[in-house]
Amino acid sequence: MIFVDYNSASEISSADYVITTGICGEHTDNNPQIMIDGIAEINACAKIAKATGARVVVVNDSRIYGKAKPHRVYSENEYAELDATSPSSLAGQLMRMRETTLHSVLKNSESTVATLRTGIILGASSNFTSVLDPVFDDIANRRDTVVPATRDRYTFVYINDVLKAIVFAMTNLEENAVYNVGGKNCNASLIMIAAVLNDIYGSRCTIESGDFTELDGCAINSNKISVNECTPDIDLETMLKICIMDKMKSEKVLRIPHSHERRLDSIHEIQLAFLLETDRICRKHNIKYFLGGGTL
Predict the structure, then answer these.
(1) For burial by CB atoms within 10 Å, which of 8, 41, 156, 193 has the most?
(2) pTM
(3) pLDDT at position 273 over 60
């Protein structure tokens, strides 16, 4: 695989796919600069797509739905109000603008758009951060920990399932459509997550007393993408274990033992399926790539 740096979008004369992730999974502090940068990114993507006829994959997260109503699970055609006082308000506005602008600009062009909206992304050794990171670190180092209490449920998804959805959006999913992307049985409150962690690691997690915490995002319904044969592979318990093992201070290779419900075999099967799908796409489009070694 060859990576090339371009100084401007006008230098790109040929492309099959344009993938734009914007601020998906990134924390924002309502800095207006993110809106300026977001508009510039969308303009560049639209310019490339119109010039090349490439398919565009837009990746946003559940903040796009706005301030969720209690106990609601949002499907692709539903929206809540954007709360101007919420730290995620600007992020939600930018995500809505990204989607509407691209669909509008590319409406009469040869390009098509597939839109993904993810839950809260967790990923070991990634740049994604979450309110659970201190909890993972405490458990990995055998310390007692306190989990913030949330009244509502949120959808979580592991990074592997997001990448899988992007691959499907490039090739299999219906054009000019929107799909929610969540993990396998991963709609949960932080209180439920604390219960799962206690069940696995013993009584090291307590629930924070006082006011409830509100996270950025909401619970989403990802049945639509599953019906299109893009089903998530990583469940909540497994993604929590991977994130905790990643923070353990050990020189040992990250492994999930065979003795624990044969999860190592499951992860190997997930990785193999993902690699085979990537290989199929590369062969179809005559794309050369280099496959490096992994840890599992």
Answers:
(1) 156
(2) 0.81
(3) yes
Long-range contacts of 78-81 (CB under 8 A, 24+ apart): 80/218
Residues 270 and 267: their CA atoms lie apart, in Å, by: 5
Burial class (CB in 10 A: 0-12, 13-18, 19+), 64: buried
* Residue 140 in tokens: 């990995």
Q: What are phi and psi of 239, to 5 degrees?
A: -65, -35
Is 12-249 a domain of CATH 1.10.3210.10? no
CA distance 159 to 165: 10
204 CB-near residues (< 8 Å, 6+ apart): 138, 139, 142, 143, 144, 145, 197, 198
Task: Return the structure tokens found at 276.
Answer: 């085979």
Q: Which whole-number Å values give the CA distances from 29 to 26, 216, 274, in the listed order?
A: 10, 12, 35
Nearest-angstrom CA–CA distance, 180 and 59: 10
Which pair of structure tokens corresponds to residue 254? 């990250």
**How many angstroms separate the CA atoms of 87 and 188, rounded?**
21
Using only C-alpha atoms, the chain has a radius of gyration, in whole angstroms, of: 20
Under 8 Å between Cβ of 71 and 128: no
Weakest mean pLDDT among 52-61, 111-120, 177-186, 286-295: 286-295
The answer to whether the CB of 9 falls within 8 A of the CB of 40 is no
Residue 267: pLDDT band with limits 50, 70, 90? low
Handedness of CA 250, 252, 253, 258 (dihedral sign): negative
Cα(97)–Cα(38) distance, integer angstroms: 9
Separation between Cα atoms, residue 98 and residue 56, nearest integer Å: 12
Measured distance CA(57)–CA(54) in Å, rounded = 10
Could you tell me the maximum CA-CA distance found in the chain, to the nearest angstrom? 58
